[in-house]
Amino acid sequence: MSTIDPVFMISFSLILAVVAFLYGSVGHGGASGYLALMALFGFSLLVMKPTALILNIFVSGISFYFFRANKFFNWKLFYPFAITSIPAAFIGGGIPINPTLYKQILGVFLFLAILRILGLFGKAPLKENQKVNIPLALAVGLGIGFFSGMIGIGGGIILSPVILLLGWGNLKESAAVSALFIFVNSASGALGFVTNGGEIPQEAFYLIPSALVGGTLGSYYGSSRFSFPVLKYILSAVLFIAFIKLMTI
Questions:
Q1: Listed residue (219, 211, 206, 217) closest to 180, CA to CA
Q2: What confidence score (pLDDT) does residue 107 get?
Q3: Rounded distance between C-alpha atoms, residue 213 and residue 243, angstroms
Q4: What is the DSSP secondary structure assignment for residue 168, as one 8-state letter?
Q5: pLDDT digits (tens, 9 = 90+) for 13-26
Q6: Residues of 16-44 as b/e, b for ≥16 C-beta within 10 angstroms?
Q7: Residue ranges of the domains in the chain?
Q8: FRET pair for 9, CA 20 to 30 Å: which of 38, 70, 212, 218?
Q9: Which phi-psi region, left, alpha or beta, contains residue 167 (left: φ > 0; alpha: ψ -120 to 50)?
């Protein structure tokens, strides 16, 4: 079935809204979830990367607004990562990648997303109120930014656990910083993609409204300390199925 078919797009949009809701609740843009869904529903690889980046921009921007409004954002924690991640995401966004390699890299990131969602790492700081190591933060931003732009994610699924495990911030601070980090990386990656001849597919524009609705509701409740354990397990199952599919084709 064509991804432009109205019935297909409406059905897919409803599922995507739920994914955006959950990711928005933890300050993320949701690209790993969108990519997993698109892989499961047979979207073309040419559609997946730019669509995930565009949806990420909207949802992470909304998440940042709500988490910042609730005074969880720490600029000093954000900027060391952003300095290197923004140009790296631009470069990564413009790099064409072999379809098989793309699926394998995406599969690894989906697996990391599953661990993050289930809280198997990055649950809470191992140390409290540690000073940010600037050289390490710059290196982390560089690596995350490059791979984020290349495969079409914002990098929050990696950045949040790093912040927590190193004790540089608490759960809400990491969510706020990750939201803006995802926003700037996704925008930079999308710009790099377009600058190097890529085109934003129609599917991206059709899916923006559902991502906005889900992301807004999730961000509102998530920034107010609301939890959705059942949805986390459902999303983890979806990501795992997509992971298996990507790694076996």
A1: 219
A2: 79
A3: 26
A4: S
A5: 999 998 898 888 77
A6: bbbbbbbbbbbbbbbbbbbbbbbbbeebe
A7: 9-247
A8: 218
A9: left
